[in-house]
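quick one
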Amino acid sequence: MKRIALPQNRIGTGHAPGKVILLGEHAVVYGWPAIALPLNRGISVEVFSRETASGSYLDPPRSNTPQRIGLEELIRTASRALRCPVARLGVRISSTLPPAMGLGSSAALSVALVRALAAYHRLPLSDTETSNHAYVLECRFHGRPSGIDNTTVAHATLLRFVRGSAPTFLHSRQPLPLLIVLGKQPRATRTMVETLRQRQAHDPRTTEAAFARIGTLVDAATHALHEGDWNSLALCMNENHSILRALGVSTPELDVLVERARRHGAWAAKLTGGGGGGAVVCLCPEERDRVQRRFTEEGWTCWPVDWPPRQGGLHERPATHGLRIA
Ligand code: PMV
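structure w/ PMV:
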């Protein structure tokens, strides 16, 4: 049997943020545009040869691998994608990202793992290459996703995404003040994507019209971001939620969160990601602290997100990858 000589005493590290879809989820699967941005929470991965770290192989919490795909299999898939030796590597994962909330935990894990492996093998990778390799892992989690999650997470910037095309990086004239509120039910992306597929097969005219309208809202929102026009952006986000609700991908819990967010002072609120559970994204140009406090008092978990990220403290962007000697 051929023995693979693994680099000893090395630890490859990779980091990636989560993401939030501002507008356009689901329609993006059918070729319509969507807007997304990175979160100020993410996942870090370290890979090392098991000999190096004898006995310190750490099985990460299952919750980090949403479809319960084994880490060994993930490493094998990533190694093949990177064309580097498939070896039994140790992996350590640490995450500040809630899993199964539609906030890109599988994409962040995929991108961070690809970066850590590439760093370990000293392979230089661009963000686009990282995203393409991570997409292969994303397919293990989600079947055939549009690619918006791995693209946003790998490039870690506000962008407009159209399936099969290079992303367009967007500029926001004013800092974009968001609040993420977590529901208590996990999102059900696969089921919701399948529900919409069936719906499209039975009633293509209505479903296509809904997606086309979402596409128009994404265009208007792109312009609103460019102008820093939060009134227009709020209208787009609120209508986007109504359409997703009419399409059947919201839930009573998400609708309650959306309604409360608006009552507490958010200018807009909508579900984000696959729906069927998960989280809500709120636009809060005024009194975000108060909206956050009200949700917290009611027992919901929420946190503020800004684009561009605030300098310093919690919002600082960590290094995306690196190499350490053990
Ligand atoms: O994985 P989630 O829940 O963030 O959803 C991704 C967005 C969808 O448009 C629903 C699916 C896709 O492949 O783009």
